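Lab notebook, entry 117. We have the chain sequence and a SMILES string for flavin mononucleotide, and the next step in the workflow is to get a structural model of the bound complex before anyone spends time on docking refinements. Request logged below.

Task: model protein plus flavin mononucleotide, output C-alpha cells.
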Amino acid sequence: MDTLNPLGLAYLHVIERGEYPALADLRPRWSSTLIANFNGPTPTTRAEGEKVVDTGLADVFSFGRAFIANPDLPARFASGAPVNEYARLRRRRRMPHRLSRAAGRTGMSRRSVQAVG
Ligand SMILES: Cc1cc2nc3c(=O)[nH]c(=O)nc-3n(C[C@H](O)[C@H](O)[C@H](O)COP(=O)(O)O)c2cc1C
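Result returned:
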C-alpha cells in the first residue's frame, strides 16, 4: 500500500473475505476512493453495504449477486422497491468419465454420446 497509494490511482476495489479485516486495515492507508465488497456465503444486503459506508470503512459499496438478480438494483434501492432474492443455479452434473472419453474420441457432442449411451 505504501507503493500504490502515492500513484494517485482513481480507486481501490477491495473484496473482503475470510479472517483478514481488509477494509479496516486499508482504509487509513488509502487516500482516494475505496470501493468495498464482501464475498460472503450469502449476498450482501443494502443495509450491510450502507453500514460500511456510514461507518467510513469505504466510500462506495458494490453488489454482485443482488445485481445479477436485480439488473435495476439502483432504481430499486432508490425507490425502496422489493429486491429479488438471488437464486443460485445448480451446477450441471458431471458427465461420467466413460462418456466424456467417448465424446472426445468421436467428436460427437456430449449430449449425443449420452443419448447413444
Ligand atoms: C456469477 C458471478 C460471477 C462473478 N464474476 C466475478 C468476476 O468476474 N470478477 C470478480 O472480481 N468477481 C466476480 N464475482 C464475485 C463478485 O464480484 C462479488 O465479489 C461476490 O458476488 C460477493 O458480493 P455479493 O455478496 O454482493 O454477491 C462473481 C460473482 C458471481 C455470483
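Notes for the group: The beta strands are 11-16, 33-38, 60-61. Worth checking against the assay data. Residues 91-117 form one domain.
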